[in-house]
Amino acid sequence: MATETHGAEHATEGTGLVFHPMDQFIVKPLFGHGDVGLFTITNVTLWLFLAIVAIVLLMVVGTSRRAIVPSRSQSVAELAYGFVYKMVEDVTGKDGLKYFPYIMTLFMFIVFANFLGLIPMSFTTTSHFAVTVPLALAVFIGVTVLGFVKNGPGFLGLFWVSSAPLALRPILAIIEVISYFVRPMSHSIRLAGNVMAGHAVIKVFAGFAALAAVSPISILAITAMYGLEVLVAFIQAYVFTILTCVYLKDALHPSH
Amino acid sequence: MEGIQFLGAGIAGLGTGIAALGVGNVAANFLAGALRNPSAAGSQTATLFIGIAFAEALGIFSFLIALLLMFAV
Q: Which residues cross the membrane (chain A) (predicted)?
């Protein structure tokens, strides 16, 4: 978290803003003011925990009555379930449904972490690469292992574009290999970057709100950005999930 | 040489704007296609979002470079 502490230093020497827009991403211990170690309970821990609690409340407690006429929470849970189920079925195909629980977990976790981060004064866990990189790496490693287990050496056919002219194939293979290994990077940076950028923009406008001349405009801008962020919070979770489905499809059917 | 990294951050920030052109291009072409053949549009929204995500990721990369220049260098 080196960048965040640098941000705090900038804030003290800054001229115009009362607070630094990146201050909201500082990881600090929940109790006391010590250093952040490996097992320190920080604000990240708290908000990750709250995300899990919220998911359990919706998906386990909310659906526990199993009513034929669903209650409000049950219909939301069923909606989410059906949405992800259809996505996996459409993108990956019938044989991808075996991996549906994992993809559902990913989707629910990212959606809840994003939306909890939109509560004012809360901490956005998905804005940290320390949270999104493990998610993306887990997908990358899992999909690669799965591809080799399911297809054996045939999985390497993913890199050999058989529909291209023979002379072009080695060049395409190099490009395909590079793009394959960039996947976990872009997968994680897309989520964290989008969430971080949106929240930083909101805080920049909040800094301008202290100036009386521009405060109406900046408060309007905060409202507009917040609306956009609600959209982004969902779309980024959707994109993360659907890319997981696409990678899974590549692993199950590597031939072009 | 003090502020030159901020200049670099500003230049890297241009990349985000160019990525916005790309995202707009994807959405515009999707809309143009969808209006010609509305019945096929519904099944292609997933493709739309994948396209937008790929175009946007590269803009986010340049945003990240800007952040690194601002805070990490």
A: 36-61, 99-117, 129-149, 155-182, 202-224, 230-248
Contact B60 A7 (CB under 8 A): no
User: And the tokens for A94?
Assistant: 């019938």
Task: Tell me whether B61 touches chain A (CB under 8 Å).
Answer: yes
User: Could you give the CA distance from residue A239 to residue A37 in angstroms, rounded to a whole number?
Assistant: 33
| Domains held by chain A: number | 1
Residues of chain A in Cβ contact (below 8 Å) with chain B: 2-3, 6-7, 10, 22, 87, 90-91, 186, 189-190, 193-194, 197, 235, 238-239, 242-243, 246
In this complex, the residue of A87, A91, A186 whose CB is nearest that of residue B57 is A186
In this prediction, residue A126 carries a pLDDT of 93
Any domain includes A31:
no
Residue A133 near residue A184, CB atoms below 8 Å:
yes
Q: Is residue A157 part of a domain?
A: yes
Dist. CA A117–CA A98, nearest whole Å: 31
pLDDT tens per residue across span B2-58: 788 899 999 999 999 999 999 999 999 999 999 999 998 888 888 898 888 888 888
- Cα B46 from Cα A82, distance rounded (Å): 15
CATH topology for the B4-72 domain: F1FO ATP Synthase (1.20.20)
- Asked if the Cβ–Cβ distance from B50 to A22 is below 8 Å, we say no
Cβ under 8 Å to A: B residues 20-49: 43, 46, 49
On whether ipTM exceeds 0.85, the answer is no
Structural domain contains residue A2: no
Closest by CA position to A2, among listed B51, B28, B67? B67
Tell the residue number behind the tokens 């981060």, with chain if given.
A117
Chain B residue numbers with beta carbons less than 8 Å from the beta carbon of A129 are none
